[in-house]
Write a structure and sequence with these properties.
With 374 residues, the protein is an alpha+beta fold. It folds into 3 domains: 81 residues, Beta Barrel (Thrombin, subunit H), CATH 2.40.10.10; 101 residues, Thrombin, subunit H; 96 residues, Pdz3 Domain (Roll), CATH 2.30.42.10. It has 7 helices and 21 strands.
Length: 374
Amino acid sequence: MKRYKNKRKNYITKILFIIFLIALLSLIINIYMSIDIKNYSNATEIKIDENINEEEKNNDEKNKIVDNIDIVTRCIVGISKLQSKGITAYLQGGADELELGTGILVSEDGYILTNQHIVGNKYSKCYITLYDGREFKANVLWSDEDIDLAILKIDARGLESVILGDSNNIRVGENVYAIGNPVGFEFQRTVTSGIISGLNRTVKIDNEKEKTYMEGLIQTDAPINVGNSGGPLINEKGEVIGINSIKIESAEGIGFAIPINMAKTIINTIIQNGEFEQVNLGILAYDKEAILYTDTTLKIDNGLYVVQVIYDSPAEKAGIKEKDIITHIDGNEIKSINDLREYMYTKKPGDIVKLDIIRKNKTENVEIKLEKKS
């Protein structure tokens, strides 16, 4: 009997021990699941927070871009060669009929940048309409047909003005926005968007007199139309990187802007001194992108190929010849026509520059005394 009781006691002990193990295992599982659920919950919350933060960040970036565009639109002016009689006159006529275009305020005291083909040569007159509807008569202070830019002045103060960016620091694929007065003034300050499609483009211009070329242009697919000329091409920061100039009429989404760096030195000089004395080198030269338009057999890696030397010009007096290749100016490498132009805009009549040229596969140095461009 005693042996039976001991056996039964051992059996009950084993059962209790098994129940204890099951309970302990169950407790461990519950604790683990609780921790796992909590971690999952926390991870989910973090993920949701990250998504919300990312969405808020994207919205903030979009709003900032829109705010930047809004600031620039207030710096856009309408330009007409004919004096209007209020907005009605603009609505009744088109951009061609009224010779309309676009310009941008580059200073608070009324300096305006636009295209030369809109306002004409120096000393010409035109009429300006501001964002708030005020109208002014403007004088053309400087104009250059070769690069299709001009600077005007109106008698005004306290105006909003644009921020000029760096057109040497842009890349193909960047988002850009074009702002202007297309077709007629009823669509004033139209904003279109696109990307930078190409850099350092050359476009052939067929004039009545001769064929000319515009070089070093920014290509964009942001839609532009008649009347957009002279308006800004801006980046997402609201900085002006180019001035819209021409488009390919036979194709969609191919427009061109003049790099803003071409005008920055000129703008600053005119604002400070009231005028800009442009120097003359006296050559017609093409870079490796443009030379293909004139002679497909010619190939140059870098520099500018001289195709014409103007009679009695500083270049001719210094001994520059046709077929010379200009590689450097004052030690600065010349890769495109814009490199040469931007550097020349920093010079004054009477300054001496040194050119490194390649002539018949030999490198030579030439000094040129610059003269004022007539």
